[in-house]
Predict the structure of DnaJ heat shock protein family (Hsp40) member C3.
Amino acid sequence: MVAPSSVTSRLGSVFPFLLVLVDLQYEGAECGVNADVEKHLELGKKLLAAGQLADALSQFHAAVDGDPDNYVAYYRRATVFLAMGKSKAALPDLTKVIELKVDFTAARLQRGHLLLKQGKLDEAEDDFKKVLKSNPSENEEKEAQSQLIKSDEMQRLRTHALDAFENSDYTAAISFLDKILEVCVWDAELRELRAECFIKEGEPRKAISDLKAASKLKNDNTEAFYKISTLYYQLGDHELSLSEVRECLKLDQDHKRCFAHYKQVKKLNKLIESAEELIREGRYTDATSKYESVMKLEPGVSEYTVRSKERICHCFSKDAKPVEAIRVCSEVLQAEPDNVNALKDRAEAYLIEEMYDEGQSARGRLLGV
């Protein structure tokens, strides 16, 4: 269920759009709308005003089905789509409105807004220029001029961003892209470009955030899912890596890179799950063997080596093998000095080995983490 506050917020964001609907209250009759279509339009308008978006949408669907050449029906349906946050669905309806009524400046202006957010700057500018040439109202003229200036600025920033990227100045490219994406929030290509910059700058989690957005903005974006999966894999998050690569294969089961990566991640995931099950059963020697296999399977990703040694350290500690535990735990702590699990297991191993001074020191260090 959609929260009332969410509906209110979305309706507020398209309030200027809704005002036009008031002017359209009687236009249905001028278009020769039949009685059933008129009922759907009127009921849909009332439901929209009440914030009952799903019900309003159903009424406007029926109106479009009843009269496919009625621009009012398409316009009102586009309004609901926008209020629901479904801009992709609103865009073709606005285009249909413009086809049916070329001089409908409000629809063209709204389409220009959506195209600008998608980063389709040339198309957006074309709409804004046509609004200015079509005898617009004073407010429409001001808005179109303002958006033209904004679009021109985005064109300039995009050129700078691409130049910076080509020159490997990723920090500058990110700065330009940040400014563009404040306006062109639905531009999948620019988000993918910024993700590449983040990867080059060693910020994989920021890259993942942009790629996740891009995967939703662009249909069948297998490349984004593949990159997200490989980034999670490099970060040591094998479960999320597996989940994302499966999304890639849902879109294209023959995707070669996704399938190859899927096999690797699945094998690694199975080893880790098996090792953890053995630990829960108290079969520490067998669990150690599994984690050694993990390190052999993926020696190129340090995160899996450290995590495996952390668990082997735990196994040795629980299996009353303090000498081995101290050795492996110390290796983990060389890589991660504040690793709480390794500190705890090494402290216990010191005490088992009757190395009380070291044990007390280790416990003190643990308390300080």
In short: Residues 1-9, 11-30 have pLDDT under 50 and may be disordered. The chain has 21 helices and no strands.
